[in-house]
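Researcher: Quick test of sequence recovery. Tokens follow.
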């Protein structure tokens, strides 16, 4: 067997095979999100269990908001329900610094991870989560509908161009919406999109003294522009649409444009899943000419809660799932385009992958997002589509509900903004940020 395995992949596979006795008769409970790449990972795990026959895998697959809620509750209460967590750039530095996560020590070539991922998944110089896929956000659009509207999408469009194009591409009689955007309430759903959008409008969550800014004109401009554009050109029931719902709409030909996670490119361009796979173009997320685009930075990553008694087995699993060996498995089964994106330098140096129409745009979008300077005006926090403080999740969950209600027509935008200001002020005062 050793002679059959060559190069780095063979060496890594042998590393997985060696020492399996340490994890004999272990069942890992893995909490993950119901995104396409994670569903594929579950289907690929025979490769892992064959190499590690003493390790069994128990999957808990949840919708994004549910995952965040249950994983956060479990780790903060030391519930010990999970051995491997799917978390992101918001939770990892906070939880790592608190000692709630184990440092990762069994990764395949961690120096090959993109610096943007490493920076967002570390605390105190230690890596506490390994990126399974990384993403920014950009525009995916129907090239045929753009041409039919008599327009040409710029590589770096403005919000005004996008809104005008959305109106011209909308054909309600044919079931085509000019634009599909997140409306489902959640700090990682509609507020990920709206916070990134607000950056380009000159808005910010907090000023330098941690005072919430929803009473400022920049947030009013952001929310009204979003609501008006969605009323003109968005789908019915948009307040219930998150990433997965909009992906389904776009794949079925019902969206002219969709601004969302760059990882979606591999799904909308897959002829097995998308009716419009041969009609998709890509452009940078829009701006308002203020120096910031509306793209975010995120990675869905795998981490180990400090309370687990199965650290060795969990380290092995994460090492496998984020390895070059795993990338090779996906490429052989589904093609190079389906490799989880946005994690490794070597992937973007691969000539076969680099020629994909979305590859360079994804890398450029990730590299251009700056968590240390996310907004036009100065801010006391880091994070592009979130503020990296523990209190953010609570505040943004409530604000997301308010803005989703405004999209559904259940409340006026000015009322939603006032309630957002009041609630966030209460949260920050109680936490001691505001004196």
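Model:
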């Amino acid at each position: 067997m050793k002679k059959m395995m060559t190069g780095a992949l063979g060496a890594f596979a042998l590393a997985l095979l060696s020492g399996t006795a340490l994890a004999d008769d272990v069942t890992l409970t893995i909490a993950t999100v119901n995104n396409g790449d994670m569903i594929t990972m579950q289907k690929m795990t025979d490769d892992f269990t064959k190499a590690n026959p003493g390790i069994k895998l128990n999957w808990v697959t949840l919708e994004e908001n549910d995952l965040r809620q249950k994983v956060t509750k479990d780790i903060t209460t030391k519930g010990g329900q999970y051995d491997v967590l799917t978390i992101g750039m918001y939770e990892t530095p906070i939880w790592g610094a608190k000692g709630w996560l184990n440092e990762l020590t069994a990764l395949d070539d961690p120096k090959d991870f993109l610096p943007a991922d490493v920076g967002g998944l570390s605390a105190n110089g230690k890596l506490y989560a390994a990126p399974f896929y990384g993403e920014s956000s950009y525009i995916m659009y129907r090239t045929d509908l753009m041409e039919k509207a008599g327009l040409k999408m710029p590589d770096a469009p403005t919000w005004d161009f996008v809104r005008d194009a959305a109106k011209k591409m909308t054909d309600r009689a044919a079931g085509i919406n000019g634009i599909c955007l997140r409306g489902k309430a959640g700090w990682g759903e509609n507020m990920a999109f709206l916070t990134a959008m607000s950056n380009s409008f000159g808005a910010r969550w907090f000023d330098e003294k941690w005072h919430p800014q929803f009473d400022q004109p920049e947030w009013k401009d952001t929310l009204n522009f979003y609501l008006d554009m969605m009323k003109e050109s968005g789908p019915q029931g948009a307040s219930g649409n998150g990433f997965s719902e909009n992906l389904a709409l776009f794949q079925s030909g019902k969206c002219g444009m969709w601004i969302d996670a760059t990882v979606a490119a591999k799904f909308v361009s897959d002829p097995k899943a998308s009716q419009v796979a041969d009609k998709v173009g890509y452009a940078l997320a829009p701006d308002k000419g203020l120096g910031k685009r509306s793209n975010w930075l995120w990675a869905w990553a795998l981490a180990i809660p400090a309370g687990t008694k199965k650290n060795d087995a969990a380290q092995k699993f994460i090492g496998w799932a984020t390895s070059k060996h795993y990338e090779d498995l996906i490429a052989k089964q589904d093609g190079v385009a389906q490799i989880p994106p946005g994690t490794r330098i070597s992937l973007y140096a691969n000539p076969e992958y680099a020629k994909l129409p979305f590859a360079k745009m994804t890398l450029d979008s990730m590299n251009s997002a700056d968590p240390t300077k996310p907004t036009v005006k100065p801010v006391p926090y880091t994070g592009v589509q979130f503020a990296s403080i523990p209190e953010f999740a609570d505040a943004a969950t409530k604000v997301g509900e308010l803005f989703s209600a405004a999209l559904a027509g259940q409340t006026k935008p000015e009322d939603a903004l006032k309630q957002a200001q009041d609630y966030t002020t209460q949260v920050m005062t109680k936490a001691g940020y505001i004196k």
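The first helix runs from residue 7 to 17.
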